[in-house]
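Handout for the seminar on molecular recognition.
Each group receives one record of this type.
Step one: identify the two inputs.
Step two: read the structure output and locate the region that could contact zinc ion.
Step three: write two sentences on what you found, then compare them with the reference statements printed after the record.
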Amino acid sequence: MNLNLARKWRSKNFDTIVGQELTIKMLKNSLYLGHFFPVYLFSGQRGCGKTTTARVFAAAVNCALLPEFQKNPKQHAVPCLQCASCVAMAQGQHPDFIEMDAASHTGVDDVRAIVEAAALLPVMGRKKVYLIDEAHMLSKAAFNAFLKILEEPPRSVLFILATTDPHKIIDTVMSRCFQLSFKAVSEQPLLAHLQEICASEQIRYAPGGLEHIIQATEGSVRDALNMVEQARFSGGIITAEAVHSLLGQLTDEQALRLFELVLHKGPREVLSFLQAHRVSSFSASAVWRTLTELVRAALWVRHGVAPQAYKDFQAQLQQLVMSVSVERLRALAEILYEHEQLFLRTTAQHELIELLLLRMCKQINPDDTSGAAGVPSSPSAAASVSSASVVGSQEEETGEQEEDDEDSDEIIDDSQSRAPWDIFLADLEQLKDPLLSSIFTQGTFVAYHADAGTLEVQFSKELIFFKDWLEDTKKSWRPLLLKQFGPSVSFAPLFTGVSRAAEKKTHTGASNASQEPSLALAFSKTDQEKLVVHDSGVAQQSVKNSSMGFPGAPKNVPVKVGWAGQKSGSSWANNTGQRGQPYYAHSRNAGPRQKPERPLDVADASSWRKATMLVQYFPGTLSEIEEKMESLS
Ligand SMILES: [Zn+2]
């Protein structure tokens, strides 16, 4: 009875693990096929189920029923929770399951002890399973000691490294791991999970209470459960207000009131509000999030699209913003985004918020918004932020015109210098590497500077995750590039573009209206000012500087390779650390397919790393896994 909720409700089998379907499928598949990797790396944010999954997996590996499961997965489940091995696991007394917290055992000696013990055969199970939690905390020397056993792992040993920070794991270890990434758990499954627990624990909650907990804990099941517990003890019934006061956040009503004062009153009222509600005692980042979210919701409402946030206050919000010009709302958003970096760095966060609120009170001349000053790190990033959200309409029209001019002037030049790139893309197909082809075909040829030998290709910002990977795989594709551009070519990828889906929509307009909705689509459908068109205007400008034309309609090849199905939730939304969706939506559903699917065969061990990357960066399901798993479910 004294167990806290998170411990009490820790999953004992695969079926009760929330929100990690694909990872669970891969592990079950591994059990079913009897293919085990010597080292697994479970990566993902805190509280999303890594350790729990590792324990369940370890129990399954040693469960007496595993052979039955492999013969008939429909009839039997592993772990069975009943055999001697499963019971020992449940009691935390399994002799072959060794759990180590690297945060407190960082030294070489700890690792040496493991390495020595690993040479002994398992006592009661098939394999000795070592779970090393917080693996990124191991010292470098410890990693090196560990490497020895990874080079020639005994067949009877299985390591599971769990980490929130896979980048801190040294490459030589990393390359020997099979990496599974755990996503932040999305809202719906987590809500269902919390409701189930509340029902069974007789915890009362008001509408909106659990939702607020979910938003505040950003996909961590453990944090959400802990907060349910806190809220339960602080107020008896879990309400939105109880959650807000636990978090030190403005309630939605308070936030709307503050926004109203900014829009329709003045500095005096705003300052009085801050004082009366003691906003400076709240979490500054929470206040900041509330403001950005509110301005974003206001823009959505102003454009006639219902936003996710402030669902219950739609009418009120609508009334607030209808008399406010779109330009002013965009200017407000710009003020926030221009100062985001500063906000993150400054120690006087509340003072900055105060200052900006005062600035937002002033009526802003729409002409002032044209500057699109440097928001995040690079000018182009700033440009795409502004293009997706806050740039004035007049300017966009100009941008569009420029694009037209450019096209007609230089289209011949451009097609000539472009040709080798297209040949390169065609050649790439021969490598039969779906991921490689997919990435390169998403690039937009910008320019080839023959004198310097620099080949500029623009990729969308999301693809920056593949930068290292492109570098690592250079051996395979670079020869093809040399064939087209000569031996001195230097490949200069720019990861500054907007998501391809968004860009495509600007070029093809309404014909794509049937696609998955994204922020960009929502805007282009409803906004007569063609918000997104400016995206290509940005690309246009950089092209102009390089004296090359820019093709009006870039090639657009779908991201999806060997994938079936589409998940609506985006794990990236959670990665922004913001409540709800990121300010500019990323849609990776890049239009109609031009090629048939090429499934990755994940039964072949060498494909697993690639599968992992796909899982991580493209939500969806591997069709190959689905086929194999049909027999399981
Ligand atoms: Zn069992």
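Reference statements: The radius of gyration is 27 Å. The CA atoms of residues 558 and 591 lie 6 Å apart.
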